[in-house]
Amino acid sequence: MKITKSLSLLLISAKFLLASTEKVTFKVLAINGTPTVNINYQQHPMQPVPNKYPLYSVDVDVKEFPVNYNYIIDYGNGNAEQEEFTRQRSKEDKPLNEFFGRSITVKEHPLLPKAFEEFPYAKKSKLYDDSFVASIFINCDPNQLKELYDNPKDGKINAEVIYASPYDVRTFKKAILSISGQSTMYVPKFSYKIKNLSDENKKELYGRSSIKLRAEHMDPTFVREKIYTDILNTLGVPTAQNTYARLYINGAPIGFFDLSDTVNNNRYLRNTFNNGEKYKNVNNNPNPLYQANSVSGEGLYSDFGFYGDDATQDKYSVYVYKGDDKVKTKYEHIANDLIPLFKEIESYKFGEVNGISIDIDSFLKYMAMEFLGGAVDNFWVTPGNYYLFKDLEKNKWFFHDVDFHYSFGVSWDAKKMLNTPLSEFPPDMEDGNKEKSRPLLDAIRSHPNEEAKFKSIFERLLKTSFHPNALFPRLESLTNLIREDAHWDFTLEKQNPNPTEESSILYVADDFEKESTSEKENEAYAKGVPVRYFIKNKALLTAQELGVTIPFEYESDLGFYENLSMAKEDEKSGSIKSLSWSLLSIIIVSLVTLLL
């Protein structure tokens, strides 16, 4: 009798556990108001997740899958907003931090084939998982923020910074906010720099303590800089990584940004050039780091030219020391570090030495990409916008290109950048610069073996990661991921109260669509060349000039470049939960069988 009764109870329990409703967690990021999740016209109020602002969650008993739902936010005083689309969750889907009003939470993109092996000294960061748009919320003193906006050049303020991904929310209470850029400080949409991203446990933001939020104000597609970086990764050169983020400050929407590395940051340098390990200062000297600029109106360019031993002359003023040594003057740094390098380059050109202490391979790869990518504001065309870093332990200088928003046919000399052949590059520029001498590149190309290597880099790129059949699917996927945020950005008021440059750049959703997706030429290059049109025609023109045959299908013999994924840790915990439930089910069924 006891066995029969126990068996009945066990069967009832098994039936309940295996066939009852399942508790499902819903999570949403909501900046203002109180959210609810709407399932089959039933609304389930959500509660704030402790220490995870602005994340809300609720557990709901769900009977049938897939479950269709969306979110509603109550702003009070009878004002509410409901998402205009329907989300869907299968039984196997894990709860993610969804963002109110954005239909895509995570989207995997086609990968690019590697043209060369990856840069051997770099340690990847999960911060640059580009399968989603991150959210950044900054809280700061409104009066201090106003002062920063009024005086952007040298100001910085304390701020609380919250970083939210679909997988986590991290808070940094002692961050420092400033306005980023040089000429971009004077355009309507500010770019931002955030430093001191370290929490009370000294934990950084996925191995980064400093980031930039780049406005991309000149690019209606928001993809030019991203795809340029993606191709650099396939070239195996040191590369500042980037992804996407939407930004709110003090609860107000600011815009859509390119989230990027800060190159002159020690954490970045050791993660890029030393596999994440701290550097040991050689002879108590920190590694030299220089930011290279240009002043076109004064004819000053960071061209690697040797202009005499006087470190104080104007030709050297565009090289700005960014290292950690605070003892020597800027002129002493140039005299000790750069002038010997420039002399060495000149000697190399004239065959007086057999080599130079700069990494030639990565430099040539950068130059090939500047040409193919139409990088109008970088070294080959407008010498500047790069860093020079010397790893004293390796006794080697590294050229590090940066800032690629003016690329792929953006509206600045787009026609020249597309149509000028390699043999005549760089083109004459609008600013009147007709000087084509580039001492470092000229010195390297004067050696036949290096010139042959340079041409082989172009050929390899055209057959791998610069192949339209490789690039276009990735471009389409990135465009689909960011479309809602890009359209949203165009509707927002810009924050610079006193813009003095490029106020006429006003984009709308149609500009995003045309320049992102079209393979046709814009009329008269009015707003730049569409990205796809530029890539397709640049590839064809370069192949014709070099006598290269582009195969119908791209080559992928080295595999594909892949960023680290935040989802993998989440998958592990999800697997454990699934395993636990499976084990419980097996145990129940086994006991029932045994008793029978």
Note the main attributes of this structure.
596 residues; alpha+beta; Immunoglobulin-like; 3 domains; seven-stranded mixed β-barrel; five-stranded antiparallel β-sheet; disordered C terminus
Which term fits the overall shape?
globular
Count up the helices.
Answer: 13
In which range does the helix fraction lie? Answer: 25-40%
The structure class reads alpha+beta
Placed side by side, the strands forming the largest sheet appear as: 11-12-13-14-15-17-16
| Poorly predicted runs of 5 or more residues | 1-5, 9-18, 572-596
How would you characterize this protein structure?
With 596 residues, this protein is α+β, with helices and mostly antiparallel strands. The chain folds into 3 domains: 2-103, Sandwich (Immunoglobulin-like); 112-267 and 493-561, no CATH class; 278-463, no CATH class. 31% of the residues lie in helices and 22% in strands. It has 13 helices and 24 strands. It has helices at 2-19, 142-150, 224-235, 266-273, 330-349, 360-372, 414-419, 439-445, 448-463, 468-490, 509-517, 531-546, 567-595; strands at residues 22-29, 34-39, 42-45, 47-48, 55-62, 67-76, 79-82, 87-89, 97-99, 112-113, 133-139, 156-164, 169-180, 191-195, 211-214, 242-249, 252-261, 289-292, 294-295, 300-301, 319-321, 386-391, 396-401, 560-561. The strands form 6 sheets. A 7-stranded mixed β-barrel has the order 11-12-13-14-15-17-16. Strands 2, 3, 6, 7 and 8 form a 5-stranded antiparallel β-sheet that branches. It has a 4-stranded mixed β-sheet with strand order 4-5-1-9, with no helix packed on it. A hairpin with a 6-residue loop joins strand 4 (47-48) and strand 5 (55-62). It is globular, with a radius of gyration of 27 Å.
